[in-house]
Amino acid sequence: MAYLTDIEIAHQCKMKPITEIAKTAGISEDMIDQYGKYKAKVDLSLMNDETRENGKLILVTAITPTPAGEGKTTTTIGLADGLKRIGKNVVVALREPSLGPVFGVKGGAAGGGYAQVVPMEDINLHFTGDFHAIGAANNLLAALLDNHIQQGNKLGIDVRKITWKRCMDMNDRQLRFIVDGLNGKANGTPREDGFDITVASEIMAVFCLANSITDLKERLSRIIVAYTYDDKPVTAGDLNAVGAMTALLKDALKPNLVQTLEGTPAFVHGGPFANIAHGCNSVIATKLALKLGDYAVTEAGFGADLGAEKFLDIKCRMAGLTPSAVVVVATVRALKMHGGLSKKELTNEDLTALEKGVPNLLRHVSNIKDVYKLPCVVAVNRFPTDTDAEIDFIIAKCKELGVNTILSNVWAEGGKGGEDLAREVVRLCEEEKGDFTFAYDSDDTIENKIRAIVQKVYRGADVTFLPAAKKQIKTLTALGFDKTPVCMAKTQYSFSDNEKLLGAPENFKVTVRNIKVSAGAGFVVALTGEIMTMPGLPKVPAAENIDVDENGVITGLF
Questions:
Q1: 3-class SS at 165?
Q2: DSSP at 35
Q3: Contact between residue 172 and residue 533 where contact means Cβ atoms under 8 Å apart
Q4: What does DSSP assign to residue 305?
C-alpha cells in the first residue's frame, strides 16, 4: 500500500486564514502581525492579561531516540487535536525546526502524517526569520568584540581567552575550529575561532528563557564573551552591544502563531537543541499557550533524560511552571532496537528483543514518576507490524509501575487517533495530583548537581571530571555561578555519554570534559563525552533529495 508523504498530506490541507485561528484562540486581530495569510506574530502584552486564568500544562517526551523513530512531535500535535475533538480548549506550543537537521538528517520537523503543523514548508525553512535574527545578534556581538580588540582593546581582553563563537543555522563541521583575522593588521587580530550551530548558541537560550524585552536586555547584558589578562569576565554589556542586539531580536521575540492540520492554534517559537542546549520552545510561547488554552500541550527534545530533564530542571524552575501531566512516547520498533535488533529486523515479532529493550522505557517512566513526582501516561505509536503480544507486553510492564499505556494512531488518523490519549491526559489532570520535585537543589555545588543528574536520571554510577573541567568549576564557583542550574550536553542516543550503550545501561561513568557558563541564559553547560556544538552532515544529506518545481512546489521535505 502506498502512503502519502508528509509534505503531500500537508499540501492537501485547506488551511484557515490565520485571523480565524487567532479568533479561535481568543486573540483579537489588532494583537497580531500577519506574515502572509497563514502565519502571524502575537503581541507580548497578552501574557499580562490578568482576566485569563492559566490552563493545565502537558509535557510530551519520549524514550531514548533510535533510527526507528518515536514520533514525539507527531504525538504532541495529535494529542492537541485529540483534546480539541473531545471538546477541550487547547493550544499547542512547539519548537521551530533548525535548518541543520532539515538539510542533514530529518528533512523536516513539523510533525508527520495527519498530525502536522502547517504551513509545513515555511515552518521548516525560513518561517518568520527568527533564527536569522538570532544568528545576526550573535554575530553582531562577535563583530563588536573583535572590533573592540582592533580599536585598542581598552578592556584588556586576552585573545587567548575569548569564549564567544560565531554561529550559523547549518550543519558545517568545517567551521568547528578556524583561524581568522589573517593577512595583516588591517584585517583584525589573528586568533583561533569557531562556529556553533545557531540552535546551540547562548542567544537562542536567552531568547527562549526571556519573559519580556526588558528581561531579554538584562540577560543579553550578562553574556560573558571573554576574559581579561587578569581573568576578569567581559560581558556584552561591557561592549555596549545590548541595545543593537535587542533591536535585531525585538520582533523575533513575539511568538509565531500557526495551525495544525485540524485547525488547532499552535505556537512555534524558538528551537534550542536538547542534546547540546536546553531543548524547549520559548517561555513566552508556553506562557501564552497557558493563558489562551485550558490545556497547553508542549514537547521537549529527544528522550526524557535530555529534553524533559531540562524542561523540568531549567525551564520550569526559571519560569515558575508546573506540568499537570507528562506523556512518554514509545514505539515497539524502537524498543526492539534498544533490545539489540537492527533496523532491518523490526517487522517480525520478537518478544525477547522487546524484553531486553523495554527497560529503556521503564527507566524514563520511573524518572517522571519517582524523581520528578508527576502523573504520567505512556503513548505507544502503533505500527502495522506491531503484534498484539508485543503491545500487551508493554502494557503489562508499565502497569507494574502504576502507569497506563494508551495506543496512539495520530500519524494515520490525526486527532481521531489521539482521542483515547486525550481522555487519559484529562483524567490525569483531574484525578491525579503530582508533587513536582526537581532532580537537584540549585544551591548545591556544580559537581553535585551534575552527579545528581547522572545518578538519579541517567542511573549511572558516577561522574569523572577531567582536569580542565575541574579548573573551570573552580573558576566559575569563584565568580558566583555555582548556584545556577546545569545544562548537560550529552549524546541523545544513550542514557550514558557513549551512544553505543543502548537500552538501560548500568554501572557506567559519565565523563565531563568541559564546563562553560551561559551567564545570560542563567545556567552552566557541562560537555560530556564526544558531544559537538556544531554538527556535521551525514554521508547522504537530506538536502540532496529536496527540490522545487517551476511552480514553486517543494518536494523532499518528508
A1: coil
A2: S
A3: no
A4: I
Catalytic-residue membership of 411 = yes
ω into 233 cis (within 30 of 0): no
- Annotation says 219 is catalytic: no
Q: Which amino acid is at 398?
A: C
Pick from 262, 250, 342: nearest CA to 21: 262
The answer to whether residue 95 is catalytic is yes
Per annotation, catalytic residue among 164, 273, 411, 438: 411
Distance, CA of 59 to CA of 82 (rounded, Å): 15
Query: How many other CB atoms are found less than 10 A from the CB of residue 526?
Result: 28
Helix intervals (H) in 367-499: 388-400, 410-413, 419-431, 446-452, 467-478
- Backbone Cα Rg of the chain: 23
Query: For residue 69, how many C-alpha atoms fall within 13 Å in the half-sphere facing its CB?
Result: 13
**DSSP strands (E only) in 171-287:** 178-180, 191-193, 195-197, 224-228, 233-235, 256-260, 265-268
| Active-site residue flag, 74 | yes
pLDDT (tens digit per residue) in 403-432: 999 999 998 899 999 999 999 999 999 999
The single residue of 39, 41, 56, 72 carrying the catalytic annotation is 72
The answer to whether the Cα torsion of 372, 377, 382, 386 is positive or negative is: positive
Point out the catalytic residue in the list 302, 465, 481, 523. 302
β-bridge partners, 162: 226
140-198 pLDDT tens trace:
999 999 999 999 999 999 999 999 999 999 999 999 999 999 999 999 999 999 999 99
Who's near 37: CB < 8 A, 6+ residues apart? 15, 17, 18
216 membership: H or E segment, kind and range: helix 213-222
For residues 74 and 115, the answer to whether their CB atoms sit within 8 Å is: yes
Tell me which residue of 414, 293, 296 sits closest to 24, measured CA to CA.
293
CA distances from 208 to 197, 198, 518 (A): 16, 13, 13
Q: What are 117's three cell numbers?
A: 503543523
**Amino acid residing at 229:** Y
Q: State how far the alpha carbon of 85 is from the alpha carbons of 79, 247, 409, 416, 419, in Å.
A: 10, 41, 14, 7, 7
What's the 3-state SS for 44-57? HHHHHCCCCCCCEE
